[in-house]
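Anyone up for a design puzzle?
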C-alpha cells in the first residue's frame, strides 16, 4: 500500500495522478465515507445498478474533488456533483448577499470554499457583506492566516464600507416596545 497524506504541498497534478493510479484495495483506505455519504452511495448503487468498478471510480472522483477543495473528508456534495455546480452558480450571480457574515467562526474547509467563491467573483460581479462583527475581528475568525489574508484582500480593499450607528431598527420599529437594557 502506498502512503497518502493530504498535505497542502500537493499540487492538483499530484492529486490527480495519485487518484488515477489508486488500486481498488486502496480506495477503501483513502476514500472513507461518513454515514450520510454511504447512504447516498447505497441508493445510487441500487437505483442505477452500478458495478463495483463504477463504485470505485465514483469514490476516486469524489476523493479528488474533496482534495482539490481542501476538504479532509468526502462530503455528499463531492459525491453527487453538486459541489462544483454550487460554486459555479455562486460565481455567476450578479449580486451575492452574505448576511450575518462571520457570526460564527469558519472551519478550514469552509474558509477554502469561501475563498474559491470570492476568487471566482473578484473584479467581475458584486458581493454585499452585512455583519455585526467589526471588520477588525474578521481575520481572527478565519482558521488559516494565509486563507484569511486572501479572503479579506478580495472583500475589503476594493469595497465601499458603510458603518451604521444607533439602535437596531428592529428595536425602534417593533410593534411592542422593547425594554431598555
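Challenge accepted. My sequence:
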Amino acid at each position: 500500500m502506498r502512503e497518502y497524506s493530504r498535505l497542502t504541498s500537493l499540487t492538483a497534478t499530484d492529486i490527480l495522478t495519485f487518484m488515477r493510479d489508486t488500486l481498488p484495495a486502496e480506495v477503501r483506505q483513502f476514500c472513507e465515507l461518513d454515514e450520510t455519504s454511504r447512504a447516498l452511495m447505497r441508493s445510487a448503487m441500487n437505483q442505477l445498478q452500478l458495478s463495483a468498478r463504477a463504485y470505485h471510480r465514483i469514490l476516486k472522483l469524489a476523493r479528488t474533488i474533496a482534495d482539490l477543495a481542501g476538504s479532509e473528508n468526502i462530503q455528499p456534495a463531492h459525491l453527487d456533483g453538486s459541489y462544483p455546480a454550487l460554486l459555479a452558480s455562486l460565481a455567476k450571480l450578479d449580486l451575492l448577499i452574505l448576511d450575518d457574515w462571520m457570526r460564527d467562526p469558519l472551519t478550514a474547509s469552509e474558509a477554502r470554499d469561501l475563498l474559491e467563491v470570492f476568487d471566482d467573483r473578484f473584479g467581475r460581479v458584486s458581493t454585499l457583506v452585512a455583519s455585526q462583527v467589526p471588520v477588525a475581528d474578521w481575520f481572527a475568525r478565519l482558521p488559516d492566516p494565509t486563507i484569511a489574508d486572501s479572503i479579506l484582500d478580495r472583500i475589503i480593499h476594493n469595497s465601499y464600507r458603510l458603518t451604521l450607528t444607533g439602535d437596531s431598527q428592529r428595536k425602534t420599529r417593533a410593534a411592542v416596545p422593547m425594554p431598555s437594557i
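A detail worth pointing out: The longest strand covers residues 95-98.
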